[in-house]
Structures are given as C-alpha cells and as structure tokens.
Amino acid sequence: MLASTCRGNRRCAPQALPCASPEALDTLVTAAFTAYRGELIAYARRLTRDPDVAEDIVAEAFCRLTVQVLAGAPPELARSWLYRVIANLVVSRARHAAVAERAGPRLVALEGAHSPETELLDRERRSDLADALETLPGDARLGLILAAIGFSGREIAVLIGRSEAATRTYLHRGRRRMRTRLELGAAP
Predict the structure, then answer these.
(1) pTM above 0.90, yes or no
(2) CATH class for the domain made up of 2-101
C-alpha cells in the first residue's frame, strides 16, 4: 500500500503507509530503493567525500529500512527517514574513525613490541619461572605469587597462616631459591 506524493519540482516518490502484507512491505523497500538511491548516494558523497564509503552507508541505511519494515514499523516518510539514518551513520562513522585515530598508535605500539624473538624469549623465561616455582614448597610458592600480584606482606601472612615477620623471611628465602635456580638454569 504505497502512496505517491508530488510537491513542486520534486520527483514523485512513494511514501510508507501502514502495510498489511509482506508483499506490500517488500514493495515499500523496493520502491524507496528505486526512487531515492541516487539522491541518497549523492547526499552521502557530499557528507563523506568518498564514493565507496557513501555506497556502504546508503546500503546500510536500506538494510535498516528493511529491518524497520519487517519489524512492522515502517517509517511514515521513508525519504526523510533515510536521510536522517544516513546523517546518523556518517556521524557514527566519524566518531569511530576519531577513536581509531587516537587509539591506533597505542595499539600498533603494543603489537610491534613483540617480535618473534622477543616472544620466544618471554615464553622461555615464563617456563623457567614456572619450573623454579615448582621446586618451592606450597606456602612459599603461594606467597611469592601473591606478592607478585601485589598483595602486602600482612595479607600474605594472613593467607598462609604465619606471622608477618615469618612471612617476610619465608618470602626472602623463596626469592633467593628462585634466583639461584634461575641463575643455574641460565648457566651453560
């Protein structure tokens, strides 16, 4: 159920009316696509200054129109609704580009910091640390791991059931054992 409206020099264009059948809904989207696609692409090009991006945005706008129509809520004025959706998509795309531009250098720096050699060395170091930790008694291993995570000496003492002074001594001895083990493992 489509109606055409003509205003002055404007091209006659279909407008959405409440539709009852799926065929009529399909006709609405098809008629809007045929009638408005060219002018919407021109509008999107003016906003984006990129023909490929303009095509993508218009395609997305028509996808959203299809979703609206299938949801049973076709816009009253399809043309103006599509213009608004395109404007919103352009703004959204610009925001995403700004965020990517700000965050991009940090992400590249994080990715570029790890060469294959660095990754291999890190993996070997983690393996050596895990092996050295395995040689420690359970409480010492737990204490060192908690200390590495950032727990205070008092918190570690409570968790492993020792006094604070005993925990400090226990952690010192555990670190010394780890250091010795790692130095022996590094020697040829």
Answers:
(1) no
(2) mainly alpha
pLDDT in tens, the chain (188 residues): 333 333 333 333 444 444 446 677 778 899 999 999 999 999 999 999 999 999 999 999 999 999 998 888 889 899 999 999 999 999 999 888 888 887 777 766 555 556 778 788 888 888 888 888 888 888 888 888 888 888 888 888 888 888 889 888 988 988 898 888 888 865 44
The CATH number given to 128-186 is 1.10.10.10
| Position 4, amino acid | S
Residue among 61, 107, 51 at smallest CA distance from 81: 61
Residue type, 186: A
79 vs 156: CA distance, rounded Å? 67
The residue ranges of every structural domain in the chain are: 2-101, 128-186
Please tell me the distance from the alpha carbon of residue 148 to that of residue 150, in angstroms, as a whole number.
5
